[in-house]
Amino acid sequence: TRPAQEQLIEAAGFVFAQLLLSGKTSIRIDGQSGEEYPKVSELVSEDIDNDIIQSALSTKLFRLTGQNLLDPCHRTVAEFLAAKWIARALRNQLSLRRLESILYGSNYIVPAAFRGLHAWIATLNSSLASKFIERDPYGFFRYGDPSILTIPQSQSLLSSLEKVAEIDPYFRSED
């Protein structure tokens, strides 16, 4: 029997979160060890059954490469599902301080590799939205979903973007 769709999405979000937060790009399925890619057997969760994780890995959310590696089907999908899992984990057992230390390091700046994930966490966890938007307003505007914001949050986003523009008027020059 195949697990329920929500269970597969949660398991995929867990796997994507592990990959994105560790800076890894793929999962090794041939059992060989190495630090470059985690093995399937290393993806263990107390909340998600291993069989459900295995089933999630066999969905179209992952694609098999020629080197016995599983890659996310698309970076944005991986960021969204990882953020969904993280937002849920923050409500249950994950410490916000621990997540922030992983996301920001010591300088409290969102690295480019985490901008999409950071924006989706703000989108999916309304209690963190204001704090995360203030930290990276343009990242939220570009990668998140501003349509979910309340009027005061939208005003805060605009104010934060104005502050960024005062510091660096060409902050969007790469667009």
Strand-residue proportion: 5-15%
**Mean pLDDT across all amino acids:** 88
Q: What is the end-to-end distance?
A: 47 Å
Strand arrangement in the largest pleated sheet: 1-3-2
State the main characteristics.
three-stranded antiparallel β-sheet, mainly alpha, 175 residues
Write the layout of secondary structure elements.
Elements: H1 5-22, E1 27-28, H2 50-57, E2 62-64, E3 69-72, H3 75-92, H4 96-104, H5 115-124, H6 126-135, H7 137-143, H8 151-167
Antiparallel strand pairs: 1-3, 2-3
Helix pairs in contact: 1-2, 1-3, 3-5, 5-6, 5-7, 6-7, 6-8
Write up this protein:
The structure is a single chain. The chain is mainly alpha-helical. Helices cover 55% and strands 5% of the residues. It has 8 helices and 3 strands, in the order αβαββαααααα. Strands 1-3-2 form a 3-stranded antiparallel beta sheet. Helix 1 (5-22) crosses helix 2, helix 1 (5-22) crosses helix 3 (75-92) and helix 5 packs antiparallel against helix 6 (126-135). It is globular. It starts with a helix and ends in an 8-residue tail after the last helix. The model has no long low-confidence stretch (mean pLDDT 88).
Summarize the structure.
By secondary structure, the protein is mainly α.
